[in-house]
């Protein structure tokens, strides 16, 4: 049975708010930032067939829609505060809305972020979320602070989401348990919010990995006006990806996208503080390279010592209008 616009909002997207001064139901929500904090705001749009497969379970889609936005807050070192949801639906049906809202709001509760408003309309399945967080003044992690000599670090593992996509495309095959694990990475990414906050005052720059390692590192390089060297052998990967042919491994690791891990830089003197941040947040962190002067550009070596740099021309990051 199809629901009307306001019925579906009241039934599925009207959780009570505790931290916001005023949630949904009026023309605007009202947020009160903590004194001494700055607001961090980010928006992401997910379009069926572009950002997710039509076969994804609604509860997983709800989870991922919020997770990719929380990942932006994590990259800024911000604490989640509130979010809005804009939802375009072909049909307003409980069979989709009930699990979608359950997945969305379960992750919201896990990170203590409140749904405070939004909009719904009929149309192609499209999900737009805007998140609001707060970060102590002057401590936000930015893309522009990397310096030559800094180490390059990454959280978690890389490439599993892209590997899952290649299985769906029929370009790779995995046994059931291994496929379940990489599909989880693709459909239920875990935003590294706690790590981002633990890196405040430690990392010199940060970004979340949504468009591929090389593509997202290029954003740091441009904003910081630096070059970078990475070592392919150090890139953290799952056993499933490690068993794949070398060419597929490199594609998934360097240009895979949808990892939603944190890529960040820090001076070598902060290495113990970085590892402590990883332990405190329960997140593995791996040193994968170093920041160089801008003239060096971008280099990836197969080994830490004694190899020639890879030809990177085939590893383009994701671009919504080119990919």
From TrEMBL:
Binding site residues for Mg(2+) 2: 44, 72
- Protein's organism: Ideonella lacteola
Write down what this protein is called.
Answer: Thiamine-monophosphate kinase
Sequence positions that bind Mg(2+) 5: 211
Q: Which InterPro entries match?
A: PurM-like_C_sf, PurM-like_N, PurM-like_N_sf, ThiL-like
Entry EC no(s):
2.7.4.16
Residues annotated to bind Mg(2+) 3? 27, 72, 208
Question: Where ATP is bound, by residue?
Answer: 118-119, 143, 210
Q: According to its UniProt record, which reaction does this protein catalyse?
A: thiamine phosphate + ATP = thiamine diphosphate + ADP
MF terms from GO for this chain are:
thiamine-phosphate kinase activity
Extract the coiled-coil ranges from the record: none
Q: What does this protein do?
A: Catalyzes the ATP-dependent phosphorylation of thiamine-monophosphate (TMP) to form thiamine-pyrophosphate (TPP), the active form of vitamin B1.
The miscellaneous annotation reads: Reaction mechanism of ThiL seems to utilize a direct, inline transfer of the gamma-phosphate of ATP to TMP rather than a phosphorylated enzyme intermediate.
Keyword Isomerase appears in the UniProt entry: no
Group of enzyme by EC: transferase
Family assignment? Belongs to the thiamine-monophosphate kinase family.
PANTHER family reported for this sequence: THIAMINE-MONOPHOSPHATE KINASE
**Pathway given in the UniProt record:** Cofactor biosynthesis; thiamine diphosphate biosynthesis; thiamine diphosphate from thiamine phosphate: step 1/1
Chain positions recorded as Mg(2+) 1 binding sites: 43-44, 119
Q: Which residues bind substrate?
A: 51, 258, 318
All residue ranges annotated as the PurM-like N-terminal domain in the record: 25-135
What keywords does the record list, in alphabetical order?
Answer: ATP-binding, Kinase, Magnesium, Metal-binding, Nucleotide-binding, Thiamine biosynthesis, Transferase
Binding residue positions for Mg(2+) 4: 27, 42, 72
């Amino acid at each position: 049975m199809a629901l009307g616009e306001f019925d579906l909002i009241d039934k599925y997207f009207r959780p009570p708010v505790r931290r916001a001064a005023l949630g949904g139901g009026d023309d605007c929500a009202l947020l009160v930032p903590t004194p001494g904090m700055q607001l961090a705001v980010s928006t992401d749009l997910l379009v069926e067939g572009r950002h997710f497969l039509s076969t994804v379970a609604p509860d997983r889609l709800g989870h991922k829609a919020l997770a990719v936005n929380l990942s932006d807050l994590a990259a800024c070192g911000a604490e989640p505060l509130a979010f809005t949801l804009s939802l375009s639906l072909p049909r307003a049906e409980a069979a989709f809305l009930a699990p979608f809202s359950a997945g969305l709001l379960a992750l919201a509760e896990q990170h203590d972020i409140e749904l405070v408003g939004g909009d719904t309309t009929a149309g192609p399945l499209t999900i737009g979320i805007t998140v609001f967080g707060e970060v102590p003044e002057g401590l936000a992690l930015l893309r522009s602070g990397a310096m030559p000599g800094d180490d390059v670090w990454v959280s978690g593992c890389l490439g599993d989401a892209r590997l899952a996509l290649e299985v769906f495309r029929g370009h790779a095959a995995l046994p059931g348990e291994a496929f379940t694990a990489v599909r989880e990475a693709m459909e239920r990414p875990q935003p590294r919010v706690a790590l981002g906050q633990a890196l405040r005052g430690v990392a010199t720059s940060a970004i979340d990995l949504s468009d591929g390692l090389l593509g997202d590192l290029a954003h740091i390089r441009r904003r910081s006006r630096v070059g970078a060297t990475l070592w392919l052998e150090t890139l953290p990967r799952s056993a499933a990806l490690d068993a794949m042919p070398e060419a597929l491994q490199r594609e998934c690791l360097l240009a895979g996208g949808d990892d939603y891990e944190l890529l960040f830089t820090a001076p070598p003197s902060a290495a113990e503080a970085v590892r402590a941040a990883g332990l405190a947040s329960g997140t593995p962190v791996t040193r994968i390279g170093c920041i160089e002067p801008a003239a060096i550009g971008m280099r990836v070596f197969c080994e830490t010592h004694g190899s020639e740099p890879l030809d990177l021309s085939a590893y383009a990051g994701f671009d919504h209008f080119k990919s």
